[in-house]
Amino acid sequence: TVCAGSTVTFNGTGASTYSWSGGVTDATPFIPGSTATYTVTGTDINNCINRATQIVKVNALPSVSSTAISNTVCAGSTVTFNGTGASTYTWTGGVTDATPFTPGSTASYTVTGTDVNNCINRATQIVKVNALPSVSSTATSNTVCAGTTVTFNGTGASSYSWTSGVTNAIPFTPGGTATYTVTGTDVNNCINRATQIVKVNALPSVSSTATSNTVCAGTTVTMSGTGASTYSWTGGVTDAT
Q1: What is the chain's pLDDT, residue by residue, as a tens digit (241 residues)?
Q2: Whole-prediction pTM value?
Q3: Which residues contact 9 (CB under 8 A, 6 or more apart)?
């Protein structure tokens, strides 16, 4: 009993020379095309002959095929390979059948399927691995005063989405010091991320004083600001003068 495509070596015994039916040559490997009976005619030194037969059963190879959840993935993504048409499966490239696998690069994977007759056949799957985009980000300023706008921009991909209500390339007023993450998606639908930290400084608590709030014409008033480091006034006033 053999699998299709396997060789069989027939040997006659008990005579001097042998001839076989079915295209067989004695003691020479032969590939049977299907299940059949082969007859050997043996001739001895007296030129007397006799015959014997061999039945060889040929089992068809399993019709093995393979599937992958996806044939094009982004770097770092898993793929699950499945063999079909046989009983057990082994894969090249470190793959285990029906188990998620992370391909390192574009490659061809071969599955060997074995059926109940121990006959085998093979199939292949090619998986293309696209690199992740090299995403980075910028901000018009990483340190601002409360109430000031910042414009964030992602680079290195095709489209961008941000955390915390930010829209790419649109002025945004951060409410406090925070880290903002941009997710960039490229033309292959692969994504990568980058971050920007923006520090928001509180506004100074500024107040002012004057030596008097009611004066007679021609009388001087000294005005002073408090709560900040430097002061400028409207109306031609110089602080503390």
Answers
A1: 999 999 999 999 999 999 999 999 999 999 999 999 999 999 999 999 999 999 999 999 999 999 999 999 999 999 999 999 999 999 999 999 999 999 999 999 999 999 999 999 999 999 999 999 999 999 999 999 999 999 999 999 999 999 999 999 999 999 999 999 999 999 999 999 999 999 999 999 999 999 999 999 999 999 999 999 999 999 999 999 9
A2: 0.79
A3: 27, 28, 29, 30
Which among 141, 136, 145 has a CA at the least distance from the CA of 181?
136
Residues in the chain, total: 241
For residue 49, the cross-strand partners are 43
The pair of structure tokens assigned to 59 is 């089992």
Provide the β-strand partners of residue 143. Answer: 199
Q: Find out whether 91 and 110 touch, Cβ atoms under 8 Å.
A: yes
DSSP 60: P
Gyration radius from the chain CA atoms: 43
Between CA 113 and CA 91 the distance in angstroms is 9
Place of tokens 């992370």: 102
**Tokens read off for 208:** 């002012």
Report the half-sphere exposure of 140 (CA within 13 A, side-chain side).
Answer: 14
The whole-angstrom distance between residue 92's C-alpha and the CA centroid of its chain comes to: 18
Q: Find the Cα–Cα–Cα–Cα dihedral 223, 227, 233, 239, rounded to 10°.
A: 40
- Look at the block and give the residue holding tokens 């990483």: 142
DSSP secondary structure of 189-238: S-EEEEEEEEEEEPPP--EEEES-SS--TT----EEEESSS----STT--
